[in-house]
């Protein structure tokens, strides 16, 4: 068949298609950049939290006065919440796997209300309407917290002159439905279909990124749930409904008690490029009865281990270091001594690369930030012949 010149309408349609593809590519690149940034920020932040939580756990061991202990409890809870927020950054950056434990939605909502109580405008009244008979779901508790905190903060922003913020639940087999309702300005009908789009926001520049609801939707869908904005019919304001599958079975992982720190013995080599992590790790390990050597570069650690192989019982290696990554250090250590006991530590959640190292012979994984009891448990397990 002979080739005919494209018509003006076909050329126009082709031009529009090219523009759409260019926009999609730009969006993909933007999301990739944000994901990379989130991962880097979370990694560095978790290093700082390791020092904070580590020293708090040390001080609590020696604290005698009740007021001192209460102050440390507040610091510990704040740092722990910050750690959970970095987990959200990691999840958004697609680094690490979410937890799968039994989550009490009522407990999560109470935590959101408790947090907002000290930050929300006094003209906004918060109400609980918990009616779900089985308020349990399987999922990541920190991600659940992030979902409802984000929705509650959006509700707060929609009520600059005050109003009522209501968190409610109801059972609707096989779902537990959570509603976040406000008496604010509401969502205009012309933008209701766009509220979950990345970077779409009605807030002023500098007041929001437009990523909040996108992240919320992603978390809910990853948990097998649904989120929707209810039609504004009988009330002024907005009502978001999150539906999550009920988990009636009790999960041991959700209720397991945290073991107490146990003393040990032996010589530990800590390899980490962050000075604050080395400092707190050394203090914690010494308090547990271990001898400690801390080194800040991979090559220096390898040279030291080569010379003092008989003096080192276990090596804790950070996965992310500037001169050599943890995988390469692990492989070099095993070349020096195939029977070396090695524990991998990282500010990232456990992912495929860490699982591969465990499969290759690493004795365990130590998630940053870690407390004294978590460090004790990881080393105790790794020291078993």
Describe the structure.
The chain is an alpha/beta fold and 385 residues long. The chain has 11 helices and 12 strands. Strand 6 and strand 7 form a beta hairpin. Helix 1 runs parallel beside helix 7, helix 4 runs antiparallel to helix 5 and helix 8 packs parallel to helix 9. The chain is globular. About 4% of the residues have low confidence.
Write the layout of secondary structure elements.
Elements: H1 8-62, H2 66-92, E1 101-104, H3 105-116, E2 124-130, E3 136-139, H4 141-157, E4 163-172, E5 175-182, H5 212-222, E6 226-229, E7 238-245, H6 252-255, E8 267-271, H7 275-287, E9 291-295, H8 298-307, E10 314-318, H9 326-336, E11 342-346, H10 352-359, E12 364-367, H11 372-383
Parallel strand pairs: 2-4, 8-9, 8-10, 10-11, 11-12
Antiparallel strand pairs: 1-3, 4-5, 5-7, 6-7
Helix pairs in contact: 1-2, 1-7, 3-4, 4-5, 8-9
Question: Which short descriptors sum up this protein?
Answer:
385 residues, alpha/beta, Helix Hairpins, Heat Shock Protein 90, Rossmann fold, 3 domains, 5-stranded parallel beta sheet, 11 helices, 18% strand, globular
**Secondary-structure content class:** alpha/beta
Number of helices: 11
Task: Kindly estimate the percentage of residues that lie in beta strands according to DSSP.
Answer: 15-25%
Shape: globular
Tally of separate domains: 3
Quaternary status: single chain
CATH T-level fold name of the largest domain: Heat Shock Protein 90
Q: Can you summarize the main beta sheet?
A: 5 strands, mixed
Strand order of the largest sheet: 2-4-5-7-6
- As a percent range, the share of helical residues equals 40-55%
CATH superfamily of the largest domain: Histidine kinase-like ATPase, C-terminal domain
User: Which architecture of the largest domain does the CATH hierarchy give at level 2?
Assistant: 2-Layer Sandwich
Low-pLDDT stretches: 205-211, 250-257
Distance between the termini: 77 Å
Compressed to H and E, one letter per element, the order equals HHEHEEHEEHEEHEHEHEHEHEH
């Amino acid at each position: 068949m002979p080739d005919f010149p494209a018509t003006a309408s076909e050329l126009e349609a082709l031009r529009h298609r090219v523009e759409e593809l260019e926009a999609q590519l730009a969006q993909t690149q933007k999301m990739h950049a944000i994901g990379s940034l989130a991962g880097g920020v979370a990694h560095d932040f978790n290093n700082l939290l390791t020092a904070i939580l580590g020293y708090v756990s040390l001080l609590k061991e020696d604290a005698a006065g009740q007021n001192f202990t209460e102050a440390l409890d507040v610091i510990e809870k704040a740092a722990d919440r910050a750690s959970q927020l970095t987990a959200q950054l990691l999840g958004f950056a697609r680094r690490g796997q979410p937890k799968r434990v039994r989550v009490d939605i009522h407990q999560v909502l109470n935590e959101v209300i408790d947090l907002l109580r000290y930050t929300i405008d006094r003209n906004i009244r918060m109400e609980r309407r918990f009616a779900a008979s089985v308020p349990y779901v399987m999922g990541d508790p920190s991600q659940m917290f992030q979902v409802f905190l984000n929705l509650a903060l959006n509700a707060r922003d929609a009520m600059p002159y005050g109003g009522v913020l209501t968190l409610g639940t109801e059972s609707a087999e096989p779902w537990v439905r959570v509603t976040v309702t406000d008496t604010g300005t509401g969502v205009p009908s012309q933008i209701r279909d766009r509220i979950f789009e990345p970077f779409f926001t009605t807030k002023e520049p500098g007041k929001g990124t437009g990523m909040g609801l996108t992240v919320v939707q992603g978390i809910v869908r990853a948990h097998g749930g649904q989120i929707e904005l209810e039609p504004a019919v009988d009330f002024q304001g907005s009502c978001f409904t999150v539906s999550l599958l009920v988990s009636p079975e009790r999960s041991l992982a959700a209720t397991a008690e945290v073991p107490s720190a146990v003393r040990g013995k032996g010589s530990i080599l800590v390899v980490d490029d962050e000075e604050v992590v080395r400092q707190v790790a050394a203090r914690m390990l010494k308090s547990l009865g271990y001898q400690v050597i801390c080194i800040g570069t991979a090559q220096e650690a390898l040279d030291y281990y080569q010379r003092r192989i008989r003096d080192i019982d276990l090596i804790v290696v950070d996965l992310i270091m500037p001169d050599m990554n943890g995988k390469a250090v692990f492989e070099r250590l095993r070349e020096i001594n195939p029977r070396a006991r090695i524990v991998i530590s990282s500010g990232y959640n456990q992912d495929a690369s860490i699982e591969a190292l465990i499969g290759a012979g690493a004795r365990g994984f130590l998630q940053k930030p870690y407390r004294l009891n978590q460090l004790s448990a990881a080393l105790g397990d790794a020291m078993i012949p």
